[in-house]
């Protein structure tokens, strides 16, 4: 338990209707009594309710507020917590925070409120990570997955795995420590089945990571094509804002522009790239090289061709490059509001959609084609009870699987039981890394550094 008292502004900085200053620790209520004057003097403020009054710095009025008190351990951090709901804005919230610090609190570190919830045993490390995922969630689906994890779905699964490991560990210890009991089988059928079950379920979770990563972070979708085919216009149309500069001059886009859009609940990390062509311009050429690199790492490529012009060598090079990489491609024949001159029949391209980015024609058909790609690749299906979205969890489960594999090999080869004990411990330790029971300070610092100060 941590006993010093911390305070921070928990809402976003800037102009807003409401701001919240949060205080947590053993002096939280004492500090509140020094700065808060309720409208009804002498009335018990109680817990878990709103109290109307004013915040003062000595005799100087700071703001009209609503205050709530949460008595530990029934609070977010399990400590006494005060939340002061004041008027939003830079000045008011800052002044209230300053007066709490003057009266005995210290400024909270990044993520310290959630770190205290973890250190005080209210949540495990996987749930703490779910909190930051909810804050950073880009779609309802990604937030839904994080909420499941926050409720303890992953924690409960890991607990089940650990119980199986502990049962087997207990049996192996009996075999080694009490040979007079005549127990020769280090892994009876029922325990072997338990371990096989853990292996199978861990494998399913590991395989769910790619889907979870795309739901959480978005599908890397790169818009490519030669200069002046309408890539930037398409980006602006999808974003419904003038995000990219559009001119008739080839090579206007020289750097990478990245934005996120939502297609039926799935985030697309949409990247507008420099037009791919041979160029003597050093800066533009750097942009072209970046475009080629992005194609290689993209989940989906939107190839834009100008239907009002005949196919030329630059178009052909782009098509051949994409085909050589074996990327999933949706071909967009742009500028269909102009006279059609393009013929792509020799390339046998699939997933072709005719659009006019400038006139907003065919955009819904294009979005439907993108969504069909998503459904075909099983990305939108989140019917599984649990989907991994964190590479740390995936890595730990891979180590657990490796431990189980080693255990089976050790038994099948008739090797000393001491080796089984080592693998059992490594498997348990890997599972404990997920929940934070065994975690280095560096890992904790890295995780909580992703939070804002007030969370």
Key attributes of the depicted protein:
flat; 15 helices; 455 residues; alpha/beta; 6-stranded mixed β-sheet; 7-stranded mixed β-sheet; 45% helix
Report on the structure:
With 455 residues, the protein is of the alpha/beta class. 45% of the residues lie in helices and 17% in strands. The protein has helices spanning 28-35, 90-102, 112-119, 125-136, 140-150, 153-177, 189-207, 209-217, 231-239, 282-297, 313-325, 363-376, 391-412, 417-435, 441-448, and strands at 6-9, 18-24, 36-38, 50-57, 60-70, 81-87, 106-107, 219-224, 257-263, 266-272, 300-306, 329-334, 352-354. It has a seven-stranded mixed β-sheet with strand order 3-4-5-6-2-1-7. Strands 9-10-8-11-12-13 form a six-stranded mixed β-sheet, with helices on both faces. β4 and β5 form a beta hairpin. α4 (125-136) packs antiparallel against α5 (140-150). The longest helix has 25 residues, at 153-177. Residues 244-254 and 277-285 have low confidence and may be disordered.
């Amino acid at each position: 338990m941590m006993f010093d008292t911390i305070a921070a502004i928990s809402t976003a900085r800037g102009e807003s209707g409401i701001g919240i200053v949060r205080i947590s620790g053993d002096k939280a209520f004492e500090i509140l009594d020094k700065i808060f004057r309720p409208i009804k003097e002498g009335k018990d403020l109680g817990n878990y309710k709103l109290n109307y009054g004013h915040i003062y710095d000595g005799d100087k009025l700071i703001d009209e507020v609503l205050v709530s008190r949460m008595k530990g351990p029934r609070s977010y951090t399990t400590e006494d917590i005060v939340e002061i709901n004041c008027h939003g804005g830079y000045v008011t919230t800052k002044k209230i925070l300053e007066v709490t610090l003057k009266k005995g609190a210290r400024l909270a570190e990044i993520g310290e409120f959630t770190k205290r919830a973890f250190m005080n045993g209210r949540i495990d490390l996987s749930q703490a990570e779910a909190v930051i995922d909810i804050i950073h969630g880009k779609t309802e689906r990604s937030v839904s997955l994080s909420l499941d994890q926050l409720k303890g779905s992953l924690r409960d699964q890991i607990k089940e795995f650990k119980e199986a490991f502990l049962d087997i560990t207990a049996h192996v210890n009996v075999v080694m420590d009490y040979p007079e009991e005549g127990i020769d089988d280090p892994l009876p059928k029922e325990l072997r089945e338990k371990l096989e079950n853990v292996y199978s379920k861990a494998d399913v979770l590991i395989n769910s990571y790619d889907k979870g990563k795309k739901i959480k972070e978005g599908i890397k979708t790169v818009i490519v094509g030669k200069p002046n085919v309408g890539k930037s216009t398409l980006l602006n149309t999808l974003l419904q804002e003038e995000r990219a500069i559009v001119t008739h001059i080839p090579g206007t886009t020289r750097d990478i522009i990245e934005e996120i859009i939502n297609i039926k609940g799935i985030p697309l990390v949409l990247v507008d790239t420099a037009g791919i062509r041979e160029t003597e311009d050093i800066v533009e050429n750097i942009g072209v090289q970046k475009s080629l690199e992005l194609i290689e790492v993209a989940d989906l490529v939107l190839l834009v061709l100008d239907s009002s012009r005949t196919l030329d060598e630059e178009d052909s090079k782009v098509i051949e490059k994409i085909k050589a990489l074996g990327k999933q491609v949706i071909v967009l024949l742009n500028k269909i509001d102009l006279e059609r001159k393009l013929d792509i029949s020799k390339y046998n391209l699939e997933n072709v959609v005719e659009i006019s980015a400038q006139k907003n024609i065919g955009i819904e058909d294009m979005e439907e084609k993108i969504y069909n790609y998503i459904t075909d690749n099983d990305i939108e299906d989140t019917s599984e009870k649990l989907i991994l979205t964190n590479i740390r969890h995936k890595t730990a489960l891979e180590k657990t699987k490796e431990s189980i594999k080693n255990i089976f090999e050790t038994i099948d080869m008739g090797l000393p039981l001491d080796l089984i004990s080592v693998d059992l411990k490594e498997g348990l330790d890997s599972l404990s890394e997920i929940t934070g029971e065994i975690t280095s300070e560096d890992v904790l610092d890295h995780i909580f550094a992703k939070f804002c100060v007030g969370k």
